[in-house]
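FORM 12-B: Structure-to-Sequence Request
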């Protein structure tokens, strides 16, 4: 496994790009054993300005220069969706571990390229689904299957917000824009995790922009055992995040599923009985950063494996195909 193996040594990070999401990662990339040592932009002046503002020691005017820096153990990639595969593979070839923003790729071919790069160069590549690193997810999954709400029947998830910034890359189909790729990937990932299975088939419907990206998306996933999931995501609706897990004898309600607080709650309803389960976890985004370092140093797989990401990506691709064709789309076996 490439990179630092001394657990006591600093684990040094670089960031490819100066995206808005960096604001959430700069702190975690400096906590404990982590050090944020470099940032790159396609403009050296922009990289230097960002480095000065954030107190980052080194700035580069190209992504290639950063991944060539021997002081960097791992890179965080918040670039537009269409650039993820290219730079994850190049970083891996340079011996860097990779934490890549979701969606990590826009098709199965991209995921398989990353899998080959990770194997060949002995590095970790993982998708930045930060919510997965909170014990909330494991607890919801356990409650869904241990009889607390009877037999699992379905999952309902939504993630919506009004996107009102003209020119935003999420409106650009060529850059992998659209609400399903941007925020719909969360309820799809959550449903797959709770169902503990790969969907058999999906259906979808979308409201499309003039630029051919989905502004709103409604989807249904059919899992083995007649378990179903319904997902909604949108750039046109008021902000909302919620997951409901439905059983034959009760339900679970999670009001902050994708950005859980340090202490998060699960509302449990069974008949007339209503209880709340509290679950403690790490600060948001810290878990995914720590996971990369631990996986890199111990050789264990990251929590979000590329096999998991492949299933999620193939599900998203199938949903988009279903929305465009009006057909039920079976997932590849």
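FORM 12-B RESPONSE
SEQUENCE OUT:
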């Amino acid at each position: 496994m490439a990179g630092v193996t001394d657990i006591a040594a600093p684990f040094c990070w670089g960031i490819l790009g100066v995206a808005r999401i960096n604001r959430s990662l700069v702190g975690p990339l400096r906590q404990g054993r982590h050090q944020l040592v470099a940032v790159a932009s396609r403009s050296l002046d922009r990289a230097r300005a960002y480095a000065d503002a954030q107190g980052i020691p080194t700035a580069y005017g190209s992504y290639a220069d950063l991944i060539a820096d021997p002081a960097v153990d791992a890179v965080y990639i918040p670039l537009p969706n269409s650039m993820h595969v290219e730079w994850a593979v190049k970083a891996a070839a340079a011996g860097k571990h990779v934490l890549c923003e979701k969606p990590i790729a826009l098709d199965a071919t991209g995921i398989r390229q990353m899998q080959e790069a990770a194997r060949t160069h002995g590095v970790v590549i993982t998708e930045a689904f930060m919510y997965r690193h909170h014990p909330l997810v494991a607890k919801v999954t356990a409650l869904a299957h241990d009889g607390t709400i009877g037999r699992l029947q379905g999952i309902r998830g939504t993630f919506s917000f009004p996107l009102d910034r003209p020119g935003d890359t999420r409106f650009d189909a060529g850059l992998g824009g659209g609400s399903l790729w941007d925020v719909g990937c969360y309820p799809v990932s959550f449903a797959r995790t709770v169902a503990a299975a790969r969907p058999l088939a999906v259906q979808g419907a979308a409201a499309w922009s003039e630029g051919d990206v989905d502004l709103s998306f409604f989807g249904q996933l059919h899992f083995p055992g007649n378990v179903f999931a319904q997902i909604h995501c949108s750039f046109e609706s008021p902000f909302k995040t919620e997951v409901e897990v439905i059983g034959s004898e009760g339900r679970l309600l999670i009001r902050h599923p994708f950005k859980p607080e340090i202490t998060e709650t699960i509302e449990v309803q069974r008949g007339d009985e209503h209880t709340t389960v509290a679950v403690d976890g790490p600060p948001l985004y810290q878990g995914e950063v720590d996971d990369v370092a631990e996986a890199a140093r111990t050789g264990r797989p990251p929590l979000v494996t590329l096999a998991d990401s492949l299933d999620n990506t193939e599900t998203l691709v199938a949903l988009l195909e279903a929305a465009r064709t009006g057909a039920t789309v079976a997932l590849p076996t």
